[in-house]
Design brief:
There is one protein chain. By secondary structure, this protein is mainly beta. The protein has one domain. The chain starts with a strand and ends with a strand. 11% of the residues are buried.
Length: 85
Amino acid sequence: MESIENELLDLEKGTIYTTRDLATLMNNRKDALVLSEDTASFHEGDISSRYLVKNKIETFIHRNDGGSYAIPDSKQLIYIVKKCN
């Protein structure tokens, strides 16, 4: 886990993080995207939920943006997480 003065900048695969950690990461890294199949939203005030980082990839995202192909100009960091019971 990389951080500068308590600013969370990266998550490690196989590590468990809090909802607050995920919210902090997304605030600090504009290139970070978090995918979760079991959670619709992350609330920074939620201190009880924990998430396991199942995978971490850095890749180009190709998508349709309002009816036209959006050519990616840089890679995006993607974290796949699963809520811990």
